[in-house]
Amino acid sequence: MEEGESNDTVSARSAQSQPLIATSETLELFHDDVKYLWTTPEIPVYDEPPSSLEFLRNHVAVSRPCIIRNAIPNESSGRPLTLTLDDLVENFSQLKLQVDVTPDGHGDCLRKVAMPTERDASFTEQVFVKPLEMEMSMVDFCHHLRAGRAKQVLRDDEEKMHQQLDQIEDQVFACADKRNDYNIKSDTVVSLDDCVLYYSRQNDCLRQEMDPLWNWKSSFDQGNTNHIFPRSFDWAEQAFIGTNSADPDKGPDAVNIWIGDERAVSAMHKDHYENLFYVLSGEKVFSLCPPADAAFLYERQVVSGQFQPTTAQPVRSDTAPTWSVTLDTVDQTDESPSSSKTTSKNYAKVHWIAADPFRQDAHRDHFPLLRYAHPMPNVRVRAGEMLYLPALWFHRVTQNCETIGINYWYDMCFDSPLWCYFHLLQQLQVSPNRGKDE
């Protein structure tokens, strides 16, 4: 103790220099606790929507997923509502869509980008790469989606998907200097039929971009007053309000529609929403991890960018020849008294998951804490079924065929113990010297 220091000051300084330690034994115990709480052999299935109380008690309050059948009935048949892409083309052929376009179906995920430096001409960096966005009509989207699917080799099992992920992980894209407005046509260097198209907007797109579909009326209703899509679900909304002080008349924060096939994959991520995902046709495949895995998935800050087609020669022999990545930038103005007002270019960054819990063997050396995660692969949601995915659950999503789904997002409850504990786990840092033990 230095002269003049109090015991409280010394204790505070000592606490700052002594980080919390989690031994392998502690993490094993935590792993087992989470396993018994959340990782069940099968997701509970309801043949009809549960009561609000049952849904709140068994799922919302304890953050536990479930599958619900007959959540959206077809009034004309009495069976669950289904819609195919052919139905959408028949009724909304000229409706304009903003479609995601990628070379291989993997957008909104980490990709290797060549960023040579003076010291290392072969340097690459993991970049969060967004899809190229293109406007097209519903009928053109359908045409190119199916033409591309017919040309490309489709995976038909989990092993083949992992092989594809290995190849994608090794692929390196050139870094483009600036973003251009591209209009990809069949006679250009990149044909739409050689790309993977996916309609996956997350901006309330069913109620905004596809408003005519959202307001489509039931032909069975002679008064023409009932929409085919519910505005909300009373049994769910009352349960969500039971854990939240939300406006009871607000309804879902967003309603989105998703259209794609088995080539498109949404990388592992989480949402701050209570999610009700209904499959209209095809089959969705969710791979899940509970919120408690936040400390083991190596979420980190990375530079963000966007795919764009290019006619330039690849910078290295292993780079993709027809696609490059343009990095997002943020202009920062230096207004300090000692300098004139100048604007410098800095790369925008986002937080994203670096590890894949479903490929632990491939990632064990780089991400040793993955062994404490709780991957739940292949949760299949078929046409006419709804998945309740609680807020903060990590999920990777794909399809087994041409599939259409809609989801209702409700605001999550932030004034809850779950959010407090999750936020703590998310902020924990892996020690570079003890990564295999802590």
Automatic annotation (TrEMBL):
Pfam families: Cupin_8. It comes from the Eukaryota. InterPro entries: Cupin_8, JmjC_dom. Residues 218-425 form the JmjC domain. PROSITE patterns: JMJC (PS51184). This is Cupin-like domain containing protein. It comes from Nitzschia inconspicua.
